[in-house]
Amino acid sequence: MSKSAVFLEMNDSRSYYRKIIRRKGFKGEECEVLVHKVMLIAEIKAIIEQNEWTQSEAAKKLGVAQPRVAELNRICIDKFSTDLLIRYLYRLNRLVAVVISEPEKENQERSNRLTP
Predict the structure, then answer these.
(1) pTM of the model
(2) d(CA 34, CA 22)
């Protein structure tokens, strides 16, 4: 898969997660933080599924107890910090790349309307 295809897929995932999180009442920066945590967790889950690891096998790879993997599977966002999720991905031989961009115009306009 080309880099541009991966970037488009990532943007689709981000938009999808953002919509779900907004429906739950989160907005602005809090929403964005949650979106990124969900994306990191989704990547960890995908790696575990691709390798067909049991929770116990995944726990060994991550250097954690099996219940932590169960929390990842249930997407318990509040149980994991962003830096811990990045550490888990590193243990799975993945590096996290950060892309900084301006908000999409639609999101920026909505944000401006919400701010007094």
Answers:
(1) 0.78
(2) 10
Would you give the end-to-end CA distance of the chain in angstroms?
A: 44
Please tell me the number of Cα atoms within 13 Å of 112 on its side-chain side: 7
Q: What is the pLDDT of residues 86-113, one digit of tens each?
A: 999 999 999 999 888 888 765 555 555 5
Q: Give burial (CB, 10 Å; 0-12/13-18/19+) of 114.
A: exposed
In angstroms, the CA 55 to CA 12 distance is 28
Report pLDDT digits (tens) over 27-44: 999 999 999 999 999 999
- Which tokens in the block code for residue 83? 């830096």
CA–centroid distance for 61 within its chain: 19
Amino acid at 108: Q
CA–CA gap between residue 36 and residue 80 (Å, rounded): 12
Considering the domain 3-114, what is its CATH architecture?
Answer: Orthogonal Bundle (1.10)
